[in-house]
Write a structure and sequence with these properties.
The chain has about 170 residues and is α/β, with parallel strands linked by helices. The protein has one domain: P-loop containing nucleotide triphosphate hydrolases (Rossmann fold, 3-Layer(aba) Sandwich), CATH 3.40.50.300. The chain contains eight helices and five strands. It has a five-stranded parallel sheet with strand order 2-3-1-4-5, with helices on both faces. The longest helix has 19 residues. The N and C termini lie close together (about 10 Å). The model has no long low-confidence stretch (mean pLDDT about 95). Bound molecules: adenosine-5'-diphosphate (ADP), shikimate-3-phosphate (S3P) and magnesium ion. The site of adenosine-5'-diphosphate (ADP) has 16 residues, from helix 1 and helix 8. Keywords: Amino-acid biosynthesis, Aromatic amino acid biosynthesis, ATP-binding, Cytoplasm, Kinase, Magnesium, Metal-binding, Nucleotide-binding, Transferase. Monomer. It is found in: Cytoplasm. Its EC number is 2.7.1.71. Catalyzes the specific phosphorylation of the 3-hydroxyl group of shikimic acid using ATP as a cosubstrate.
Amino acid sequence: MKIILIGYMGSGKSSVGKKLASVLNLPFKDLDTEIEQSENLSVSEIFSQKGEIYFRKTENKVLKTLLKQAGSFVLATGGGTPCYADSLTFMLEEPNTILVYLKNSLEVLTNRLLLEKEHRPLLAHLNSEEEVNDFIRKHLFERTFYYNQANIIVESSAKNIAETTEEIVGRLF
Ligand SMILES: Nc1ncnc2c1ncn2[C@@H]1O[C@H](COP(=O)(O)OP(=O)(O)O)[C@@H](O)[C@H]1O
Ligand SMILES: O=C(O)C1=C[C@@H](OP(=O)(O)O)[C@@H](O)[C@H](O)C1
Ligand SMILES: [Mg+2]
């Protein structure tokens, strides 16, 4: 079985994904890391040197290559993965694959991302807390349409990483 985590930046896809893989004794893959390895550049370097469109094309290509691999694993996607080209349809149509949306409130996401915004090229240029707030509110609204198409939606705003992992395991089996 392939378990794919989707959701906005800062929703915990990478941290919960790692924990979930360890609990289920499955390999863990992070799409951003796979992209960095295939390009030999960090995500931020890809955005600054090659631009977002190039990143989105690479993201779509690396996703498809990964999902065509045999075997089970947990995959943490990037926040934009399901929102471009045919990536969402591709993930939904892949056999033995379950999409899990890690749903978090705007407030939780904003608080986490204010601490980590330098690592997110889409946020790094925003100057004030108010600008970050305004950007995330609009962006999350636009992307929620895609996230809501997941097979399982896990509300994780009030849960720590272990509790979110436990809820996913309970919903899977
Ligand atoms: N309850 C929680 N669930 C998930 N992540 C949390 C939680 N509380 C704090 N965090 C922190 O929030 C950040 C989430 O980032 P990350 O896992 O990289 O998310 P994503 O991959 O979705 O952007 C990490 O620094 C993580 O340690
Ligand atoms: O939301 C997005 O468009 C992005 C999210 C990032 O991943 P995380 O959601 O793991 O931060 C990374 O793929 C890139 O910075 C773009
Ligand atoms: Mg991540």
